[in-house]
Design brief:
Blueprint: E1 6-12, E2 19-25, E3 28-34, E4 42-45, E5 47-52, E6 54-55, E7 58-59, H1 67-79, E8 82-90, H2 94-110, H3 112-117, E9 121-124, H4 148-157, E10 162-167, H5 174-183, E11 187-190, H6 197-206, E12 210-211, H7 229-234, E13 239-243, H8 251-261, E14 266-269, E15 281-285, E16 289-293, E17 298-301, E18 309-312, H9 320-326, H10 331-336, H11 340-346, E19 360-364, E20 373-379, E21 382-383
């Protein structure tokens, strides 16, 4: 990285289209001015992604995890405009989870840039539904009931960095478990579930505040009246996380769900896996087994049908055309779902404002269906590209 004590960054504001000049010094935003200057690239706060399993071949959920992989994943995320994220660990034996949590904590302790980017750890599972469909690509053998003692062991290994936990509220232990996590300062999200309305309500009463990739991690066919989607969409105390890659949800599904939740109770995640950013082809994956990655980012279990997703492969920058051209959001609204909205969940990040950390990204996009290109990224005011 190249360090600059004070600099002026030029771009266009995604919300207004006006020229903007952002001055940074000492790692903070010190001034913001609107003025026309001819610069065409868009300038915003860096993306915040609350669900990243890996990217560019760097896998957080392999059989082993080392500090070098965590570092490399951070660098890969910066290249696609993400300046803050939650490394996400999925359903696995406790010993493997403990080892991965400890490694991420060690990486943060040893490397300032990693600590700056990693706002916490997201543990997705293992307390999810065990049946096919809601379980997704998670290992059925490792699904287990919530355990306060196990969570406490996670948090000890992670140095207190577990920030978000996804679980299914169908377990009898769920309300007490959720209450324990909330008292410990952890955000609880509902996902990979076929829970009924009463179980969802009990979880929210206990303190759950999020829905993980709502609309996914579900049965292929559901009761049209009684299912886990309607209660979560109707519950104003739940903010919904959505995967907006055009594969996990159709544009019509996403548009309707965003209308139901409202933009102030919605945010976008990537749910990236390690195969994201790699060439199209067939791969053997630790999660999901044999999979096929298409050039358009569709990642499917290679079972001859191509019908079942095996994770997500498109970074947040790539979903802007889907949100704007297919779902009908403004560019400013789309960017807010990937900056301001997730920033509220992890605590006062993702806002382009004086006094905020100078975690910024610039990108080129002409409004067409082509993927936007990252033009610059700054972490605490230091340029990384």
């Amino acid at each position: 990285m190249s360090s600059v004590s004070s600099q002026r960054l030029l771009g266009r504001d995604p919300s207004t289209g006006r020229g903007i000049v952002v001055t940074t010094e000492g790692g903070l935003i010190t001034a913001i001015e609107f003025q026309e200057h001819g610069e065409k690239q868009w300038l915003s706060a860096g993306f915040i992604d609350l669900q990243v399993n890996g990217y560019g071949g760097h896998d957080l959920n392999g059989l082993t995890l080392d500090i070098a992989t965590v570092q490399a994943l951070c660098q890969a995320m910066l290249k696609v405009g993400v300046t803050t994220f939650l490394p996400t660990l999925v359903t696995a034996p406790e010993a493997r989870l403990i080892a991965a949590l400890r490694t991420i904590d060690d990486a943060c302790a040893q490397h300032a840039d990693v600590a700056s980017m990693v706002a916490g750890i997201h543990v997705e599972g293992p307390h999810i539904a065990s049946e096919d469909g809601p379980r997704g690509a998670h290992s059925a053998a490792d699904v287990r009931a919530p355990s306060v003692a196990e969570f406490d062991r996670w948090q000890l290994a992670a140095g207190g960095r577990v920030k978000l936990v996804t679980l299914s509220p169908h377990w009898p232990e769920a309300p007490a478990y959720i209450s324990h996590l909330v008292k410990a300062g952890v955000v609880v999200s509902l996902g990979h579930t076929s829970a009924d309305a009463a179980q969802i309500a009990a979880a929210v009463d206990a303190g759950a505040t999020l829905s993980t990739h709502l609309g996914n991690g579900s049965h292929a066919t559901m009761n049209r009246r009684h299912n886990h989607l309607w209660p979560q969409l109707a519950e104003d105390r739940l903010t919904a996380m959505f995967i907006a890659d055009g594969h996990h949800l159709t544009p019509a599904q996403l548009k309707v769900m965003l209308r139901a939740k409202g933009l102030d109770r919605s945010l976008v995640v990537s749910d990236l896996v390690a195969l994201g950013g790699l060439p199209a082809g067939k791969y053997e994956n630790p999660i999901g087994g044999k999979v096929e990655l298409r050039a358009d980012g569709f990642l499917a279990i290679d079972d001859g049908t191509g019908n079942y997703l095996a994770g997500a492969a498109l970074p947040l920058i790539a979903v802007i055309p889907e949100l704007v051209n297919q779902v009908g959001l403004t560019l400013g609204e789309a960017i807010a779902l990937m900056t301001v909205a997730p920033g509220r969940i992890i605590g006062d990040r993702g806002v382009l404002a004086v006094g905020q950390s100078a975690d910024l990204m610039a990108f080129h996009w002409d409004g067409s269906s082509a993927r936007p290109e990252v033009g610059g990224v700054w972490l605490r005011g230091e340029s990384i590209r």
